[in-house]
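Re: that backbone. Tokens:
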């Protein structure tokens, strides 16, 4: 499954509809990353170092795709965590590798493809803003989230709508 995901040009995530939406597949992304990490260390211990390093780069690439998935900030952060796992694998293997120096220099060049991802972060923040905007519109229309919290039940009936300006709040979020 991991190899199939890596052959795709991008990860497609469902468009978020609300704040309380569950993203159970994100746990699967991390789980498959951990399995790939275990597999690469098995390869490394069996002296298949090139294969192990390639797997680490696949993990880093998977994290990059997760960052660029077009999801919420949570998707971006899970992608960053996955990239971190791949980089951690590289850090553990490099001191023990027997690969020639030229291979390591090539790997340094490969890492340039996975630098910080401001475009992915920007897109994730835009998705977050759209979700917040919808929530604020719903809040202003009186569609309060249903919770069992006593503080929520007390706050909404006693005039929070008088202190709340959805337009100004959305402008602040946009800034």
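Recovered sequence:
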């Amino acid at each position: 499954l991991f190899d199939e995901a890596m052959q795709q040009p991008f990860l497609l995530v469902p468009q978020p509809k609300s704040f309380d939406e569950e993203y159970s597949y994100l746990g699967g992304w991390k789980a498959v990353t951990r399995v790939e990490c275990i597999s690469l260390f098995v390869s490394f211990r069996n002296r298949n170092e090139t294969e192990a390093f390639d797997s680490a780069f696949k993990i880093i690439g998977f994290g990059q795709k997760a960052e660029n998935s077009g999801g919420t900030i949570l998707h971006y952060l899970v992608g960053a965590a996955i990239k971190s796992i791949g980089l951690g694998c590289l850090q553990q293997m490099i001191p023990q590798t027997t690969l020639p120096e030229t291979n390591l220099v090539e790997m340094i060049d490969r890492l340039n493809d996975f630098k910080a991802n401001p475009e992915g972060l920007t897109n994730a923040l835009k998705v977050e803003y759209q979700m917040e905007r919808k929530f604020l519109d719903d809040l202003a229309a009186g569609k309060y989230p249903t919770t069992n919290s006593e503080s929520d039940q007390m706050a909404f009936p006693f005039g929070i709508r008088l202190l709340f300006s959805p337009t100004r709040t959305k402008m602040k979020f946009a800034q």
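The chain has a mean pLDDT of 81. The chain has eight helices and no strands.
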